[in-house]
Design a protein that fits this description.
Rossmann fold; alpha/beta; 21% strand; 7 strands; 6 helices
Length: 196
């Protein structure tokens, strides 16, 4: 079975290490670990990786965050896939940094990229993986915060965060969403308990 895995972010070197580019970071890490490369196509850069007979089409939209739905809709149609084969990876202000949550549907949670995808697909019933970036900003500072660079300490944590998300997607495709959610959605809690 094939999957379209979309990492949300903004194109351009100036955005590469920003909090809003968590989706791009995960896909870049996956492509690098798989020794593959992104090729520029319509509405975004694409790469392909395989795992246990499953093929994952990795998409980094070139449409900017607020118009991500254009790229998602185009590539779902081109690859002849339904929303049940779509996985979107993005940042989330509502979760502490590094916390990961997989959901099979639901609201956009205030995320403009998710909102545009929902609007253009006409459904919120697609899988999304949200990576917490925290919300350490003063009133009115949300845009500067999400478009700000990760701290040195946060950057050091990114390889492990990317590995967890990639492993979660592999489990999702091979063992099912319930097992994937059980792993991703409880991992941080287990780590916290282990520190007590």
């Amino acid at each position: 079975m094939d999957y379209l895995v979309v990492g949300l972010g903004n194109i351009g070197a100036e955005y590469a290490s920003t909090r809003h580019n968590m989706g791009f970071m995960v896909l870049d890490a996956w492509a690098k670990a798989s020794d593959t490369f992104f090729l520029t196509g319509r509405y975004g850069d694409m790469a392909e990786v395989s795992f246990k007979g499953r093929k994952f089409h990795l998409l980094k939209p070139s449409t900017y965050m607020n118009l991500s739905g254009n790229a998602v809709r185009y590539w779902l149609d081109k690859l002849h896939m339904g929303v049940e084969n779509l996985i979107v990876v993005c940042d989330d202000l509502n979760l502490p940094f590094g916390m990961i949550r997989m959901r099979l549907g639901g609201s956009d949670g205030g995320h403009n990229g998710l909102r545009n995808i929902i609007d253009l697909l006409g459904t919120d019933r697609y899988t999304r993986i949200r990576i917490g970036i925290g919300n350490d900003f003063s009133r009115g500072g949300q845009i500067d915060f999400v478009l700000g660079d990760l701290s040195e300490d946060e950057l050091k944590q990114m390889p492990e965060i990317c590995d967890r998300v990639i492993e979660g997607i592999r489990i999702y495709a091979t063992a099912g969403p319930e097992k994937a959610m059980n792993g991703l959605n409880t991992r941080k809690k287990e780590e916290k308990n282990a520190d007590i």
